[in-house]
Amino acid sequence: MAEIAEAQAAFARHNKIMVRRGYVPTSVYTASSLFFVIPKDHDRLEEGLRLAGVPEYLLTGEFAAKNHLKADDIRRLLFGRRLGGRDWSVGGGPDWKLGAVYDAIVSKDGGRVTLTGPWGNVTDADTSFDGDKLCYTASTGAQICCEIFFNPGGTRALMNEMIWLVRGQTFTFSLIE
Known about the structure:
Layout: H1 2-20, H2 28-31, H3 39-51, H4 61-67, H5 71-78, E1 82-87, E2 100-106, E3 112-116, E4 122-130, E5 133-137, E6 143-150, E7 162-166, E8 169-175
Antiparallel strand pairs: 1-2, 1-8, 2-3, 3-4, 4-5, 5-6, 6-7, 7-8
């Protein structure tokens, strides 16, 4: 039991550092992208993360329960705003270069969105909601839905106050205007 409590405390410290550096909290899914030569090492990592209480995905567990934005929150916070984010993995993180910048503009009524950069290049797309998911229509006609979360510990300077989760990818962002 002491080892599990120690692992949970270490994981909490890890996430605090990750968020402070501009990234999102870790899940078993995102941590399992690490490369291991010996498959058993990968399996042990996942087992240890689960024992430490790490959620399988960002959408599950305590993090999602506390930080998931509802449709009304999204309307209030994002409509009529410009959003900006950075991909810190490009350029080596916040201690190196500025990272790749991306942005989005959501119309005041929320009916249209324009996205650039890693979010995708979408111009003046129709938006809608599917429950608490913000959805938009890509140029291909496909409907793409995202979930949005507060990122506790995120800062405007690092452009990671919120998390945009779409198709298994996470993008941190902040409100710019």
